[in-house]
Structure prediction request, 315 residues.
Amino acid sequence: MSKLDKIEELQEFLREDQSNFQARRQLAVLLLDTGFSEEALQHFLYLSRIFPNDSGIFYNLGIVYEKLKNLDKAEISYLKAIEFSPEEVDAMYNLGLVYIDRKEYDKAIDCFEKVLEKDSDDSNAYFSIGLSYFKQGKADAAQYYFQRTIELNDDDIYAHFYIGNILKDKGNSQEASEKFKKVLELSPDYSWAYFNLAVIDYENGNINGAVQKLQKTLELNPKDNDAYKIYSKILIKEEMFDNAEDVLNQAINYCGANGDLYYILAQVYKNKENYKEYEKQMNLALKNHQTLTAVPKAVKAEFDNYTKNKTSSRA
Prediction:
């Protein structure tokens, strides 16, 4: 029997007997599992009024509210689940994830440490503590916990990936590369690992290696804005302006309006002496200033200077 058929069967049971709480609970869990979060919510709320001390109901309510992006109610639900069953760690772990989403990292760490008090070999808790420290900019603490994660679970691609990022930021490009290669061993289609390897190659002057990895990045993720930017800058540096134009137009097609992409494309047209297109792209860059990495005032000053010189040459 398919899940949808099972949902229909359980709904029929409830139509016959509204007090069939076992069927309602089963239906709520199945609705949650199949992505019908709003429908699942109504059943769990009904059950929570009938069984106000049931930790499992409140745990599932927390999951539903998380899926619906209502983090405040998710927090309340998980706290109730913990109150009724303090020995259960799943609600505590999920509560920590809510705090990460709310950027309350110290509270999150406290939750995951309590999970580790119950199970000192919980690799997910170590990873989540590492992630909390990473998001706080505490790289050394984050690296320690990511390392503990892979000591318990060497197949955790995200722990390897974050360690790679930390090592790259510290300038340890060789060790960082090994970490990103490990990620690709575990997940060959992980585009961000290719991107980071491309950045390392680019920074170390290995242009061919960078290009190959950027092409692979975009093959796997054609919406990677940063990959397009680095790729186009390499092509401009190599004076391959037609190729750069193609790459940037592809980027805009996939990623949409973006100040950086328009600005780089303007530089391509300037080098090609296509000043009509240069002006168009500069105007678009300024119009989309919220996505400009360059200081908008500096971009405007550059364009104003170009316009002034153009007017003077006509006088």
The mean pLDDT is 95.
